Task: structure prediction
Amino acid sequence: MRPCLEFAVAIAVLACSGLAQSPSAGPYKVVKTAKVGGAGGYDYVFADVDGRRLYIARTGPMSRMTIFNLDTLEPAGEISTTNSHGAVVDSKSHHGFISSKPILMFDSQTMMPIKKIEVEGNPDGMLFDPSDQRAYILSHAAPHVTVIDAKDGSILGTIDLGGMPEQAAADGKGHLYIDVEDKDNIAVVDTKTLTVTAHYDLTGKGGTCAGLSLDAKNRILFAACRNPANMVILNADDGKIITTLPIGTGTDGALFNPRTMEAFSSHGDGTLTVIKENSPSSFVVEQTVQTMPGARTSTLDTKTNRIILIGAQFGPPTPPAEPGGRAGRGQIVADSFSILAVGK
Result:
């Protein structure tokens, strides 16, 4: 994931051009907003559904993992880290892992550090697979995936994807799917051998894919892509593309809720696209929910069926450093950082 402020330029352009996705009527809405403030940027958000805690990585000089009550969104604690990006938690062992360098292993009940795990690459996104109690650490630099045993924090191996990963999804049956952002494909990994068995090509349908979710029962993958801004829907077993549907701009996260048979894509333009799976071959954009500019990462509380997003208000982009250059990143407005809960 890129730093959060890069979307400020895109948001400003969209606001001026009128290209941002317009909200549409539907059952979902922002049901709760917690303006929690605090210094620094932000990255991934993770819901520990069993432990009823919400983990949010705050970036910058005061890098830390902030922890909130998942039900009330009130502060519950904080863990100091170095360059944190995200967290995952194993509800069986009560071991949590923070995507930093080194990886920080902690006790999710006491929120106290257990140990540091030295890894190569540049840890960014993460996935925890409860079927094998493993944490999969994603990195834009090789090795692209580091596999950690959540029971004791030992490193089980690494995986070369041939490109930069963004988000992963697991089927609980030995298959891991990872979108490779700079190669416009989805890597299929055998979790028993830790080897790549296939690459599903998305060229022409969706590029720079930064979100991935899975309907494990019906074997459907949802790849949220930025260029073009599409949700590419494909068969998880053979990679055959079923259809594509338009989504908002600046996606950085995809979710699937098997209880409602809906996929979600969160965007930096301040929208959340809701896609309904009517059948394994029929999909439709059900709703576009207005959220908050910069709310591009999200997580799902499967107990309440609520989608949790994080965002902030941004100042104007700074002028380019040289004529014809790229505008600089706008600054986050002080204490504007917020948590949003979207539900019915």
Summary: The chain is about 5% helix and 50% strand.
